[in-house]
Design brief:
Blueprint lengths: L1 H13 L3 H39 L7 H10 L4 E2 L4 E2 L4 E3 L2 E3 L4 E2 L4 E3 L2 E3 L4 E2 L4 E3 L1 E3 L8 E3 L2 E3 L4 E2 L4 E2 L4 E2 L4 E2 L4 E2 L7 E4 L4 E5 L16
Parallel strand pairs: 1-4, 2-5, 3-6, 4-7, 5-8, 6-9, 7-12, 8-13, 9-14, 12-15, 13-16, 14-17, 16-18
Antiparallel strand pairs: 10-11, 18-19
Length: 214
C-alpha cells in the first residue's frame, strides 16, 4: 500500500490533498494492524481455551475413553492402541504416545514429546522440552524434544529435562531428575540422575492397564 501511495504522491500534491491522504493511509494501516491483532488474539484465545478445558476440567472426568477422544480429536495428541492415561494429567504441545503405554496420575507433558510402546510413566512425572538460557541478557528460550523409547519405566515424581532421550528398557528412578540421556536398559536415579545399574534385556511384556474410575 505504501508503494501505491508513493506513486500517487505527485497527483495528491497537485490537488492539495496530500495531508488528508496521509491521515487516511494511517487510519487504513491502523485498522489493518488492529484486525490482524484481533485475529491472532482469537486464535490464541481458542488454543488456550481448548487446553484449559482439558487440563482444568476434563482431565478429572472419571471415564478414560472420553478423555482420550478429546486429546486425540481436539488437542491433536497421537495416542496408540491400548494406551491408558490417568486422571489429572496435563497436556500441552506436540505429543505422540505409542501402544500399550500407561501415563500415571497427575503427570505433566509439555512440548514436543515422543513416548513409544509399553512405556510406564508413574504418577506426577514432569516432562518438558523448553527452558531459558541462564546467561542470556534477554532471557531467551530454547526448545529440545524429549523421546522415551519402548519399555522405558519412569518412577513417580521424576523430572525429564529438554533434549533428553530415555533409552529402550531404561529405568529412571522415583524423584530423579534426568538432565542427560539414559542409555538402553540402563537404570538411573538421583538428582541429577546417574547410572546405578542395568536392566534385563529380556523384556516382552505388554501393558494392558484399564482400571475403573481412574
Amino acid at each position: 500500500m505504501s508503494t501505491i501511495f508513493k506513486q500517487l504522491k505527485p497527483v495528491l500534491i497537485k490537488f492539495g490533498i496530500l495531508p488528508v491522504a496521509r491521515k487516511l493511509l494511517g487510519l487504513i494501516l491502523w485498522i489493518k494492524n488492529s484486525f490482524y491483532h484481533f485475529i491472532s488474539s482469537c486464535g490464541q484465545f481458542y488454543s488456550s481455551l481448548k487446553l484449559y478445558f482439558f487440563n482444568d476440567w476434563l482431565t478429572f472426568f472419571p471415564v478414560h475413553f472420553i478423555r482420550k477422544i478429546y486429546l486425540k480429536g481436539v488437542l491433536g495428541t497421537e495416542i496408540g492402541r491400548q494406551t491408558f492415561i490417568h486422571m489429572g494429567c496435563r497436556f500441552e504441545g506436540e505429543i505422540s504416545i505409542g501402544n500399550n503405554t500407561v501415563i500415571g496420575r497427575k503427570c505433566i507433558l509439555k512440548g514436543e514429546i515422543v513416548i513409544k510402546n509399553n512405556v510406564s510413566i508413574t504418577a506426577e512425572t514432569y516432562i518438558f522440552t523448553s527452558s531459558h538460557f541462564v546467561n542470556d541478557p534477554d532471557f531467551n528460550c530454547f526448545y529440545r524434544p524429549v523421546v522415551i523409547e519402548d519399555y522405558a519405566w519412569i518412577g513417580a515424581r521424576a523430572m525429564i529435562l529438554p533434549g533428553v532421550t530415555i533409552g529402550k528398557g531404561a529405568v529412571l528412578g522415583a524423584c530423579s531428575v534426568a538432565t542427560k540421556s539414559v542409555g538402553d536398559y540402563k537404570i538411573s536415579a538421583g538428582m541429577p540422575a546417574r547410572e546405578i545399574g542395568e536392566r534385563s534385556k529380556n523384556l516382552a511384556y505388554q501393558l494392558n492397564y484399564f482400571p475403573f474410575f481412574q
